[in-house]
Amino acid sequence: CEYTDCTFTRGMMTHTLNGAIDIIDPTPTLTDFEIRTVFTAFTRTLTNSATDQTMSAMFDGSRQLAATVDTLGVTMTNFLTAFTYPNDATASHLKNWVAKFTADVPGSIALGEPLPAGMLTVTGNSTWTRLSQSWAMTTTTPTPLHFNPACTVAPRFDDGTLIHTVTRLEATATFEVEFTACGQYTVTRL
After folding, report:
1. pLDDT tens track for 147-190
2. Nearest to residue 26, comparing CAs of 52, 61, 64?
3. Distance from CA of residue 183 to its chain's centroid?
4. CA distances (Å), 133 to each of 1, 57, 118, 127, in order?
5. How distant, in Å, are the alpha carbons of 21, 50, 131, 168 from that of 84?
6. pLDDT band for position 81 (50/70/90)?
7. Please, are residues 54 and 43 in contact by the beta-carbon 8 Å criterion?
8. Bridge-partner residues for 36, per DSSP?
């Protein structure tokens, strides 16, 4: 779908769409739920008619979702979100992520039902930029995180390790979050 100055108004806000969104079936010969969405400079601009202020968000890159009765996954490749605010300040977020959830019991993922117990792996990196400042983060799960739906304490993991490495202003810090039981975890600076 390509948009060129596609405009509609709701209340005091005028929405203008530009750019392209391609929706692709990456496995066209299979009957499955897998979809790739490619954004090419897709921009949504909002203008407030009362204040004449405008802000915009531009999306560029690809996202791929896959779901079976056994696994769920999402991949974001060079996915950039760039914001321009009414005062002309800018901010952006660039993401490269792969996340996969595998149910403990094969066949237990069902549309419209709560997520069953399972293992989550996450790897990737993000870079945030606002004005002249930048932050970068990489994430890995050397031991997959175990999601336990019976756990009532967020984030509902009862096992696994998550490692974040954050860089800001040339300083780098690495943190390990180790989940040991429902609602129990330790954070260690490495």
Report:
1. 999 999 988 999 999 999 999 888 999 999 999 999 899 999 98
2. 64
3. 24
4. 34, 19, 38, 11
5. 20, 19, 10, 22
6. very high
7. no
8. 24, 64
